[in-house]
Amino acid sequence: MTRVFALLCSAVLALSAGGCRVMQHISEGAYRNAVRDGTVDDLGARGIALRGKPSCEFPKRAGDDMLTIRCTGRTAGGDPVTVTGRAARVSQTDPLEDYVVTVGDRVVLRQDCLGLGCVHRNP
To answer: Considering only CA atoms, which of 69, 77, 14, 8 is closest in space to residue 39?
Structure first.
């Protein structure tokens, strides 16, 4: 997912600088989907089923090289799920990502990428 993230963020930055709003929204949508799918995959691998894919938004942009995302959802049993993510150096080919996933009040994931194919920087 890190490579996908880098490409998507580079596209978002390049297109937002050029004023292409439609492509910017497509790229943001692709990143949102990647975080949703990665969350479902990682929680599923830990035996935690979700009611559906989490709903995600970009609450703030901290400059051109930092992006944050926040997703919320529910487990199959009704517990709240929250994903908070941050990516730095998004205009570079090797962004630094950080995700925290909580179920209820318990942190179940704290890692630098999401999804079954991700390779952690610090395993």
So the answer is: 69
Alpha-carbon distance of 123 to 38, in angstroms, equals 17
Place of tokens 């150096």: 89
pLDDT higher than threshold 80 for residue 108: yes
**What is the distance between the alpha carbons of residues 113 and 121, in angstroms, rounded to a whole number?**
9
- How far apart CA 24 and CA 16 sit, in angstroms, is 6
DSSP symbols for 78-110: S-EEEEEEEEE-TTSSS-EEEEEEEETTEEEEE
Is residue 20 over pLDDT 70?
Answer: no
pLDDT in tens, 56-90: 998 876 667 788 899 999 999 999 999 999 888 87
C-alpha distances out from residue 52 to 8, 17, 48, 86, 100, Å? 24, 34, 12, 23, 19
Q: What are phi and psi of 86, to 5 degrees?
A: -145, 140
